[in-house]
Specification:
Length: 142
């Protein structure tokens, strides 16, 4: 606390005025500091609000990315299932075609065997007829 010297009429006016001026300067300095701090606080609040908005945007972007990822995985799973089902159908078709071809070939083999047997019987009959003819040549009166 400041002590003032006294004179005949009380405290010295210059000292009191100087003190009041000093107090005024100090108060003004404090007010200016408070205004600067208020300005800085407002700027920080704006920055904080901006970063909160960014955070919300990033959170929404993350959610969208997660949903897209889930959808892509689901689509890939569905597509792979479709590919596998198609491959199974194609495999079944190929096996069925091969079985049908094998049955057809087997039928052709059986038919060829029959034809060979028929050919052999006819050839044997022709040869036997020719042999009979050769045998009959001996009996001819030539």
């Amino acid at each position: 606390m400041k002590k003032f010297s006294t004179g005949i009429t009380g405290y010295r006016k210059e000292e009191v005025n100087k003190f009041v001026d000093d107090v005024i300067k100090e108060v003004e300095s404090m007010i200016n500091d408070l205004r600067a701090k208020d300005k800085e606080i407002n700027e920080l609040k704006k920055n904080l609000e901006h970063y909160k908005n960014l955070e919300q945007t990033f959170n929404r972007a993350i959610l969208v990315a997660e949903e897209a990822s889930s959808q892509i995985r689901r689509m890939a799973r569905d597509e792979s299932k479709t590919v596998i089902d198609d491959a199974k159908k194609n495999a079944s078709r190929i096996v069925n075609d091969a079985l049908m071809q094998a049955e057809k070939t087997q039928g052709e083999v059986i038919q060829l065997k029959r034809n060979i047997n028929v050919f052999k019987r006819r050839l044997r009959a022709i040869i036997e007829a020719q042999l009979e003819f050769v045998d009959d040549i001996d009996h001819l009166d030539i």
